[in-house]
From TrEMBL:
Residues covered by the HTH araC/xylS-type domain: 184-282
Annotated protein name in UniProt: AraC family transcriptional regulator
PROSITE patterns reported for this sequence: HTH_ARAC_FAMILY_2
Pfam families reported in the protein's UniProt record: AraC_binding, HTH_18
SMART domains in the record: HTH_ARAC
This protein's record includes keyword Chaperone: no
GO molecular function: DNA-binding transcription factor activity; sequence-specific DNA binding
InterPro entries membership: AraC-bd, Homeodomain-like_sf, HTH-like, HTH_AraC, Tscrpt_reg_AraC-type_HTH
Keywords from the UniProt entry: DNA-binding, Transcription, Transcription regulation
Length: 288
């Protein structure tokens, strides 16, 4: 294999910060955003009215009135449709997000952030987006990078992390702080190492825990075993590569750490309920 499979980046990855108002005429007009695409920045969508249907890593997500949606760098995102929507979309280069905020978001126990906002929260996010837009050019779709805009956008993403952390703490009140820390640390290491490490014992060794303790703790917090979460992380990246690259299933298997691609085929079929080749054909036909 000459090159390791990679997913083409969306053209908008050249941005630092980008902000645009959205409505049905924009969301429902065919564009690059209606095809699955991968970003290396955070996409934040504030829905003031109506709803938007998204796909994140080939799974449907509905963002409703007075809600804030955030997709992470590296995820495959697709706008599907909207109904009576008004709101904003803000894209922030991950290099502009400080390490503390990035760590909070990347260690999220959820694969997407979809927050229902209270009236005060909704007003705050709407107002700061208005300020960001107000300091931009009249062409709101342009790339914007002034210090004022960076400061405002940084405040926005910091508040996202703060609000999300508060929601998550309410959800995990019946777990100890140490259990939450272990589960988040496991997910962080998993995202970094899943191509190389496939056994629960590998992660237990890194975290200096027994396999049984790590598995029991993570399962108590997330509802899923270590093996399940490892397989799901591999599946997500495999699906991204199957859709976005022209590499063979064998090449993709090797890039994900499986020298025995027949085993990879069986594992993908078991986890996804469909073979890699059938998944590729299905998704390409669906988005034509």
């Amino acid at each position: 294999m000459k090159n390791s499979p990679t997913i083409p980046k969306h053209d908008h990855d050249r941005i630092g910060i980008r902000i645009e108002p959205i409505d049905d005429s924009i969301i429902n007009t065919p564009s690059d955003f209606h095809q699955p695409h991968r970003h290396e920045h955070y996409i934040c969508i504030l829905v003031e009215k109506g709803s938007i249907e998204n796909s994140v890593d080939f799974r449907k997500t509905i963002v409703r009135k007075n809600s804030l949606f955030v997709s992470y760098p590296g995820q495959v995102h697709q706008l599907v449709k909207s109904t009576g929507v008004t709101g904003w979309v803000l894209a922030i280069d991950n290099k502009l997000v400080d390490d503390t905020v990035s760590s909070i978001l990347q260690q999220s126990l959820s694969e997407v952030i979809n927050l229902e906002l209270g009236p005060g929260e909704s007003r705050w996010f709407k107002n700061i987006l208005g300020l960001i837009a107000g300091t931009a050019s009249k062409d709101l779709g342009m790339v914007i990078n002034s210090q004022a805009q960076v400061t405002l956008a940084t405040a926005f993403i910091q508040q996202v992390a703060f609000v999300y952390q508060g929601r998550e703490q309410r959800f995990t009140l019946h777990h100890s702080a140490n259990s939450i820390y272990i589960a988040k640390k496991f997910k962080q290491v998993l995202k970094q190492q899943f191509k190389a490490l496939k056994r629960p014992g590998d992660y237990a060794e890194i975290l200096n825990l027994s396999v049984s303790h790590l598995n029991d703790t993570v399962k108590a917090v997330t509802g899923f075993s270590l093996t399940y979460l490892i397989q799901q992380e591999v599946l997500r990246e495999a699906q991204r590569l199957l859709y976005h690259s022209h590499f063979s299933v064998k090449e993709i298997a090797v890039s994900l750490g499986y020298e025995d691609y027949k085993y990879f085929n069986r594992l993908f079929g078991k986890v996804a309920g469909i073979s890699p080749g059938a998944f590729r054909k299905q998704e390409i036909n669906r988005t034509k």
